[in-house]
Amino acid sequence: MARIIGLDPGERRVGVAVADPTGTIASPDRFIDRTKENVVEAVARMCDELGVSLIVVGLPISLDGSEGPAARAARRLGADVAAGVDVEVVYHDERFTTVTADQALISGGVRRRKRKDKRDQVAAAVMLQAYLDARRHDAGSAADELP
Questions:
Q1: pLDDT in tens, 46-75
Q2: Which of 46, 62, 64, 61 is closest to 4 using CA atoms?
Q3: Kind of pairing, strands 88-93 and 13-19?
Q4: Which of 40, 56, 58, 65 could connect to 6 by a Cys-Cys bridge, CB 3.0–4.6 Å?
Q5: What phi and psi, each to the nearest 5 degrees, are found at residue 140?
Q6: What is the CA radius of gyration of the chain?
Q7: In sequence order, what are the residues at sequence separation of 6 or more whose Cβ sits closer than 8 angstroms to the Cβ of residue 75?
Q8: Cβ(42)–Cβ(84) under 8 Å?
Q9: How confident is the model at residue 146 (pLDDT cuts 50, 70, 90)?
Q10: CA 75 – CA 44 distance, rounded (Å)
């Protein structure tokens, strides 16, 4: 079964998470350092390695529902990735993922220095898990509507 990956775009790093083959559980995977790697090339390699069928890009929507500069940057990244790989790209709201990731790392006893290295990929996993849960919920709702 093809895999789904999630990207949590940041100015310096892009967090990456990977769903299990059943599309049920998202796990933190790595981060891409934009100063050292080309994001599109790195994602293309992952797509080849994992047999990726879908890329979910986190979209930082404001609390009022508007899209600010960070959301526009996320859409640009998603467009660049879509142009560079032959895989569908979708967007999913990522509000509060970094805060949630930080809280999880703190409660897990991860030291401040290590949290910095893990935060982006854990935030990507939080966002991707929310996407997977919503997709599963939507599929269940559609099945409920059948006669």
A1: 999 999 999 999 998 888 888 889 899 999
A2: 46
A3: unpaired
A4: 56
A5: -65, -40
A6: 15
A7: 57, 59, 67, 91
A8: no
A9: very low
A10: 17
Q: What CA–CA distances, in Å, run from 140 to 40, 104, 136?
A: 33, 29, 6
Number of domains composing the chain: 1
pLDDT average, residue stretch 1-15: 90
Q: Which residue has the tokens 């080309």?
A: 38
Q: How far apart, in whole angstroms, are the C-alpha atoms of residue 132 and residue 64?
A: 24
Q: Quote the tokens at residue 84.
A: 């560079």
Contacts with 103 (C-beta within 8 Å, 6 or more apart), sequence order: none
Which tokens hold the place of 49?
Answer: 């390695």
Whichever domain contains 33, its CATH number is 3.30.420.140
Enclosing domain of residue 22: 3-144
The beta strand positions in 11-68, using DSSP E, are 13-19, 26-33, 52-59
- Residues 131/6, Cβ–Cβ less than 8 Å: yes
Q: Which amino acid is at 81?
A: V
